[in-house]
Structures
1.
Amino acid sequence: METKTHLLHSAKVSNNCPECYSTEGLEFTFSQEEVENKLYSKAKGDILETLRCKNCQQVIYPVNWTADIERVYNYNRKLVKPLGTGMKLKPLAYILIIIDALFLGAIIYYLNQS
Ligand SMILES: [Zn+2]
């Protein structure tokens, strides 16, 4: 199993950073993890949300958010379009299904011969 992280949405925020008070460093990122193996891939249901300050390199946790930051968060959260969490089959899975079907077809064919 391999895990890939997809960046869904990111937004620069002009609010003051609660750590260094810079108004230029804050950025929200919304991402989603997808696990995959040789046969299929499937996105996880939860969205990973991070507020990070590029100025002081700190991750700002929701407990330290101001009301303004929360408002910007709520706005950006609505812009996020999550990946569907359905299972997506890979070409190898289809090949195996086809081989299976051919194999089954061959058995039925031989059974009908006798
Ligand atoms: Zn900062």
Note: The CA atoms of residues 18 and 65 lie 7 Å apart.
2.
Amino acid sequence: MFDNKRIVFIGPGVMAEAMIAGLIRQEVTQPPMLLAAGPRVERGEDLKSRYGIEWMTDNATAARAGDIVVLSVKPQRLDTVLESLHGIIKPDALILSIVAGASIAKISGILDHKAVIRAMPNTPAQIGEGITVWTAAPEVSEVQREMGQQILAALGQEIFMEEETYLNMATALSGTGPAYVFLFMEAMVDAGVHLGFPRRVAEQLVAQTVRGSVDYYTRDTDPLHLARLRNQVTSPGGTSAAALYYLEKAGFRTAISRAVWAAYERSRELGKDARAHWPENVSQQDDG
Ligand SMILES: NC(=O)c1ccc[n+]([C@@H]2O[C@H](COP(=O)([O-])OP(=O)(O)OC[C@H]3O[C@@H](n4cnc5c(N)ncnc54)[C@H](OP(=O)(O)O)[C@@H]3O)[C@@H](O)[C@H]2O)c1
């Protein structure tokens, strides 16, 4: 499917590298068919030596060569990048954007190019364990859709949604999700240290508890409801009942629900005018 198809990455950062590594690992395409463009030569040399891909600093020259052009710059850089690519994308090329908050209408409007896929991956993509929600403009052909799906599958699981409105929801739930999980784990590790465990042991206990619980939950194609799994560990008058009582009283469930909703609203807000809302030095973890 990717024979002689050039995949060009505009914005060769963490997520682009995850895609490049996944595409090569899964032999979806060959390194010479991959081309990345970005401002830092050292970054380019690094990617070139590790993956054998082509590199250049000029976005426009790179994009002109692309059959698939992946937009993987930070949201606050997107407008400038799109404006510089206006009118130079091949008419039959596919644009695949992973930029948080950027709508298909905005991308295709500035580029004047209709075949756009919008996707929201998450950081476990870096080890091929991510999950990506994606959607496609009606003008994306069946073949382009399959190509987009294969590229995103290099990051882990992928879920196609017919309506774009799910992308902001995915940003709040799975895109930002690792932040919630890591905060929860960090709090548990600290609690273990508070109890008296050496930090290394507390980290091991927490990581394997989370990993084992997830594997236990997902071992069947039709998993038990999470409340039933929780009840399995909750004996009457026992330790879990005491702990869960406290979590509910402290508003744990409401805090999670409100946090996800806040991320959703922020994602929609950022989508309206990325340049106006993004601080220049926002960290990579802030924008999932
Ligand atoms: N990280 C996540 O969890 C996550 C999850 C879902 C979606 N996303 C989306 O993925 C996109 C990339 O995120 P990331 O975490 O990979 O960010 P990143 O590591 O900062 O990558 C951005 C890359 O773009 C380069 N760049 C800066 N200005 C450019 C320009 N004018 N033209 C071309 N390249 C330019 C940067 O180069 P320098 O380093 O030299 O500045 C960097 O290599 C973001 O839009 C984000 O919303 C990220």
Note: The first helix runs from residue 14 to 25.
